[in-house]
Write a structure and sequence with these properties.
Radius of gyration of chain A: 25 Å
Largest sheet of chain A: none
Helix content of chain A: over 70%
Shape of chain B: elongated
Shape of chain A: globular
Number of helices of chain A: 12
Number of helices of chain B: 9
Oligomer: heterodimer
Order of helices and strands of chain A: HHHHHHHHHHHH
Chain lengths: 287, 375
């Protein structure tokens, strides 16, 4: 078979233009403004965290340093509450389960609505964003009877994932919707269908991989939400990490371990954020 | 176009190209009739281009054939087998879309091999086939690139390779060139035709570009309001349009008032034969192609029904289009640029109309806009 001569379509690199003096000055001023804003907001967020970290590292005597509070994370047990480590485990498990359930529910549904029942998209968006408008206390009042019944069967705090999926819905929906709108879902799915792909294959092998950044963002937001959630767990009498820290502080004041655990949780979320951003960037820049 | 070309298959076994029949196909979108009992038969190995204005139903026809939409009524057969109710995934048709449709997360090679992977072809076989197809479209050196690293033309070539890799029975092309610039479009159009002839696959090509349709197709189907107005070889569609719509849509036409008498039409004193001989006597509008009009410079200031003044000359390359004001109407003529060079704006000219068979319209408005786009 004869080969086709490739069409010379490679775009020529844009010629670098020398900025005029006025543009250079404007750019410099803009850069200075950026750095100032970045520094002010950085300090605003960072100082309390540094204070927490410093507090968690303080020794028994003023001016001394100790890792005791950090070592206690794995073994600490406050009066009348389960071991701290078990609530950390529960919270991490909750985060994983919530992320998985949220993705399994939301990703196929959103793709399906986009492809087959587009007229439902407004309704779905409204329903997904609805939890934002409902205060946590109202949710607790509404869900109380259900969770009372669940507690009757002595099920673990992992059952909180139902309500966490609802709480994470608006954030995950927005992240996934942004991922979905960045690709031509209709054309990609029709191309895959014409090549013989089933609807399942279209979703799993064609659409979902191209929503990767949206999925990662949705996971990150859900993860952060579950790690920091206090109100609902506390009001429904479950012990997740935040509720446990509050109980320790109230019953057996040990500020050191509370702060070391909080800083550890924040560091964990930060590392996860870095990993997810790196994964997304590597994907975009591949090739 | 009745021969049955042979399609080569993955395992080297020859496969005869198939006939495709669309019978009485209808499709409505609410009150809008997209397809109105359309009948169309593609002979084995034939390339038919569906041409028409937006909303005429050409893309709907292709999507019904692909299985991406369901017909309200009618029947589709491919190689004698009824596929009307078969899902798109099972129709065995390769399709190239107007929008870039390569899977962004896969390399060119993986894109081309995607359909084969779904068919459980072994990795070695599908890799071999993918490279073979990329060779066919001249992109085997780009196999490990990602779609975003290719130009638009290259992406459409890969899409064509991907569509052909599964050895489909039918190839469907949905305005695959419309997103490309003019030079690449013309080049890729010729490549599509070459590959289609080489593979010998029955092909339906949808376009709104007349030049594309006339250049690439064995037969052109001009569509209007969900029906095919004329289905004929390109030369026939152009030179012997079946209806005034076809005449006006394909190429430019001068609309000049005339009078039919005894199976002939007289336009500004010139008697011309008719395409349709059963036109009743009476006043009509004759549709005359610009290339059927020639002219000569006229030094004297005399007058006549075909004497006028050049008001504009448009350079088109090898030919030029000359607009002549006849006083009560304007006429377009298409002349070799060398001839048009001696007729600057303001020249007095005498027109001659070549006695080709012309189509007439009962339309009462000869001053209406000149229809169609430039060919």
């Amino acid at each position: 078979m004869a080969a086709v001569t490739s069409v010379g379509e490679t775009p020529a690199p844009a010629a670098a233009s020398r900025p005029s003096g006025m543009q250079a000055r404007r750019r410099r001023r803009l850069n200075i403004f950026r750095y100032v804003v970045f520094t002010v907001f950085g300090l605003f967020f960072l100082l309390p965290l540094l204070a927490m970290a410093r507090f968690s590292l303080e020794g028994a005597k003023l001016g001394t340093w100790s890792l005791t509070a950090w070592k206690q994370i794995a073994s600490y047990q406050g009066t009348g509450v389960p071991p701290l480590l078990s609530s950390i485990e529960i919270t991490l498990e909750l985060a994983v389960i919530t992320c998985v359930v949220m993705l399994v529910l939301l990703v196929p549904t959103m793709i399906w609505v986009r492809l087959r029942v587009r007229w439902l998209s407004r309704t779905m968006e409204f329903l997904s964003l609805l939890p934002l408008t409902i205060p946590a206390i109202a949710l607790v009042v509404g869900l109380g009877p259900i969770y009372n019944r669940i507690q009757h069967y002595e099920l673990s705090a992992l059952m909180l994932f139902w309500v966490y999926v609802i709480l994470a819905l608006p954030y995950a929906y927005r992240a996934l919707a942004a991922g979905l709108s960045a690709i031509d879902v209709e054309t990609l799915s029709e191309a895959a269908r014409s090549l013989g792909a089933s609807w399942f294959t279209v979703m799993v092998r064609v659409i979902a991989p191209n929503m990767r950044q949206g999925i990662l963002n949705a996971v990150l937001l859900t993860w952060a939400l579950v790690l920091g959630e206090f109100t609902i767990a506390y009001l429904l009498l479950y012990n997740n990490l935040q509720a446990e820290l509050y109980s320790i502080n109230r019953n057996t004041p040990n500020a050191g371990v509370i702060f070391s655990t909080s800083v550890a949780a924040l560091l964990f979320a930060f590392v996860l954020l870095l990993i997810l951003s790196y994964a997304g960037r590597r994907r975009r820049g591949r090739g | 176009m009745t021969s049955s070309p042979v399609t080569r298959t993955r395992d080297g076994v020859a496969r005869t190209a198939v006939e495709v029949r669309l019978e009485e196909l209808s499709r409505h979108y609410g009150p809008v009739v997209a397809l109105d009992r359309l009948d169309l038969t593609l002979q084995p190995g034939e390339l038919i281009a569906l041409l028409g204005p937006s909303g005429c139903g050409k893309t709907t026809t292709l999507r019904l054939l692909a299985g991406l939409e369901d017909a309200d009524t009618g029947r589709i057969t491919v190689g004698g087998k009824d596929i009307t109710h078969l899902s798109a995934a099972k129709r065995d048709m390769g399709m190239v879309f107007q929008a870039y449709s390569l899977f962004p997360h896969m390399t060119v090679r993986q894109n081309v091999a995607f359909g084969l992977r779904l068919r459980k072809v072994s990795p070695a076989q599908r890799d071999k086939r993918a490279i073979e197809m990329l060779d066919l479209v001249g992109l085997s050196t780009q196999a490990d690139r990602y779609p975003h690293q290719l130009s638009g033309g290259q992406q459409q070539r890969v899409a064509l390779a991907r569509a052909l890799a599964i050895e489909p029975q039918v190839l469907l092309l949905d305005e695959p060139l419309s997103a490309l610039d003019a030079k690449v479009r013309a080049q890729l159009r010729d490549e599509i035709r070459r590959i289609q002839l080489e593979v010998g696959i029955t092909t339906l090509f949808v376009t709104h570009d007349q030049e594309e349709a006339l250049a690439i197709a064995d037969r052109v189907g001009v569509m209007r309001e969900g029906r095919i107005e004329q289905l004929a070889p390109p030369t026939e569609v152009y030179s012997r349009p079946a209806t005034s719509f076809v005449a006006e849509f394909v190429g430019l036409s001068n609309r000049l008032p005339g009078e039919v008498r005894g199976g002939q039409v007289t336009v500004r004193g010139v008697t011309l034969p008719l395409v349709e001989h059963d036109v009743p006597d009476g006043r009509v509008v004759a549709l005359i192609r610009p290339e059927a009009v020639t002219m000569a410079s006229r030094a004297s200031a005399g007058s006549g029904p075909l004497v006028g003044t050049v008001i504009a000359v448009t350079f088109l390359g090898a030919t030029s289009r000359v607009t002549v004001d006849l006083g009560d109407t304007t006429v377009l003529a298409q002349l070799p640029t060398s001839d048009a060079a001696s007729l600057p704006a303001g020249s007095r000219v005498a027109l001659t109309i070549r006695p080709d068979p012309v189509l007439v319209s009962a339309s009462a408005d000869p001053a209406g806009p000149l229809a169609g786009e430039e060919v």
